[in-house]
Amino acid sequence: MAKRRLYQRLRSNAQVRTILFCLGGLLMIVGVIIGPLPGPGFLILFPVGLMLVLQNSAWAKRRYVRFKRRHPRYGDWADRVMRRVSAARRRARERIAEALDDD
Predict the structure, then answer these.
(1) Which residue did the predictor score with more confidence, 26 or 36?
(2) Which of 11-20, 63-72, 76-85 has the highest mean pLDDT?
(3) Is 2 exposed, middle or buried (0-12, 13-18, 19+ CB in 10 A)?
(4) Contact at 8 Å (CB) between 56 and 17?
C-alpha cells in the first residue's frame, strides 16, 4: 500500500510524468525496431510503453479512444495485451447482457 501511495505522489509531479511519458515512447520505438528479431521482445516492450504513455498523457488517451472506436477489433486486442481493467469490466458487462438476452 505504501508503494502505491509513493507511486501516486511521484506521478503527481509534472517532471516525473514527462519522464514516464518519454520512457514509454522510447519503449514503443525500441519494441518496433526489435520486432523482426526472434523472441517476444515486441510483445513485451510495446504494450509496456503504451501503458506508460496512456497513463501519463491525456492527449494519448484521447487518440487511443479514437483508435479503438475506428478499429474495435484491434482496440480489444490491445486492451487484452495491456490487461486494462476497464476492458475487463466492459467484457464482463457484455457477457451479462448476452446472458440476459438469451433468457
Answers:
(1) 26
(2) 63-72
(3) exposed
(4) yes
